[in-house]
Amino acid sequence: MKKMTASQFRQASGSSFGQTNNGILDEKVLRIISDVQKNGDTALLRLTEELDGIRLRTLQVTEDEFQEAEASVSDSFHTALRTAGKNIETFHAGQMEQSWFMNPDLGVTLGQKVSPIERVGVYIPGGKASYPSSVLMNIIPAKLAGVKDITVTTPPDEHGNISPHVLAAARVAGADTVYKVGGAQAIAALAYGTETIKKAFKIVGPGNTYVARAKKWVFGDVAVDMIAGPSEICIVADETANPAFAAADLLSQAEHDEQARPLLVTPSSHIADAVQGEISRQIEKLERKKIIRQSLDQNGRMIVTESLAEALDIANLIAPEHLQLMIREPFENLAAITNAGAIFLGNYSPEPLGDYAAGPNHTLPTSGTAAFSSPLGVYDFMKKSSIIHYQRDALRNVSETVTSLAKAEGLTAHAQSIQIRKDENDAKTDD
Ligand SMILES: NC(=O)c1ccc[n+]([C@@H]2O[C@H](COP(=O)([O-])OP(=O)(O)OC[C@H]3O[C@@H](n4cnc5c(N)ncnc54)[C@H](O)[C@@H]3O)[C@@H](O)[C@H]2O)c1
Ligand SMILES: N[C@H](CO)Cc1c[nH]c[nH+]1
Ligand SMILES: [Zn+2]
What we know:
Layout: E1 2-5, H1 6-13, H2 23-52, H3 63-72, H4 75-93, E2 100-102, E3 108-116, E4 119-123, H5 132-145, E5 149-154, H6 164-173, E6 177-180, H7 183-192, E7 202-204, H8 209-218, E8 223-224, E9 232-237, H9 243-254, E10 261-266, H10 269-283, H11 289-299, E11 301-304, H12 308-318, E12 322-326, H13 330-333, E13 342-345, H14 351-356, E14 382-390, H15 392-408, H16 412-430
Parallel strand pairs: 1-11, 4-5, 4-7, 5-6, 7-8, 9-10, 9-12, 10-11, 12-13
Antiparallel strand pairs: 2-3, 3-14
Bound molecules: nicotinamide-adenine-dinucleotide, L-histidinol (HSO) and zinc ion (ZN).
């Protein structure tokens, strides 16, 4: 990991930290999207052959495949799915929103009706690893919100199968419709529909840069949760941090993707060196060394600051997906943090705990977007309608306000819609 001072980091990244040049990527992604729009399932099957290297005849996972998958995973995995699922459900139940009504004036009822989104598409990444945990994290909040129709898409492996762990998780979470398609082509299918895949009203779920860019391009034609790309971890560590723990946590996110970003920000040069030493030692035991090394070399940074306050400022500038505060007084410093997807406090709250089992969602804003967006939650699967009810006299009381504003806008038909009722009301009062 490159070691640098806070000012070198500021100069190198400026406000464009996390942004990449998307020209070539966008060209490719747009070509895929328009291919799927024009050619539907034929494009999906062809692109799956080209990009995933597997020739499929059909896209949908069958009931037999589900049953085989469920039978093949271990009892302990089933137990882990249920335990994690329960924790995720308990946390997300706290996010439920209810419809509400108010009566601000006599004869007036106003309110907000909350309804689930009817049809949602869930993307589960599957290129470099399979993610049953993401199945739970994306489907459980949708189910709590009351979404009726959930379609899952995820790329097939080299044999044309979906990981049995992913299928078992889909069953536990309550989703039965799974299609074997990944990448930008899956996002296009969910956004525009094909012969077999129904158009969704909203697409959720993380993925690699192709998936993230495709979500950006289809946004507007369909809702998307966020543009969650490659994983990130930023650890703010003072001299109380355990260097072995910090190194293990940085490595955990580096193993997701060559483009994952592991960052350490510390006022202690000694801690930076100790963490670097631990990384070199621990990496040897890990399986995904190649991906990890690329991630550390290309995107890893150790930023040495003048003070803890400056380290917290840098963390806010980065607005990381995951922020670990491995410092003496994490709760006391929480107020200083304004931009982060999820904040893990202390030496015993490592990021992978949040990835799998703590309960809060692991689909989080990346690439600096935590400065303006939030974790995936039940609220992502709900929409609101305003409710307005005025009785006759209440409308008369407000008629002057409405007609005067309408006339000022030159919209006399608007004014008339109020006036016609006022006239009727006045006539009734005269009787
Ligand atoms: N934020 C989260 O909650 C979260 C959770 C899990 C994973 N992740 C991230 O999701 C990402 C998963 O990436 P992945 O690659 O393993 O799986 P993925 O499913 O996102 O992407 C695989 C698909 O990308 C497409 N693709 C690959 N190379 C391509 C190319 N050259 N041109 C066009 N399309 C191409 C293929 O169609 C393939 O099916 C990682 O970056 C990981 O960090 C994030
Ligand atoms: N850390 C990922 C989000 O960036 C989520 C995940 C799933 N499985 C393991 N990790
Ligand atoms: Zn992870």
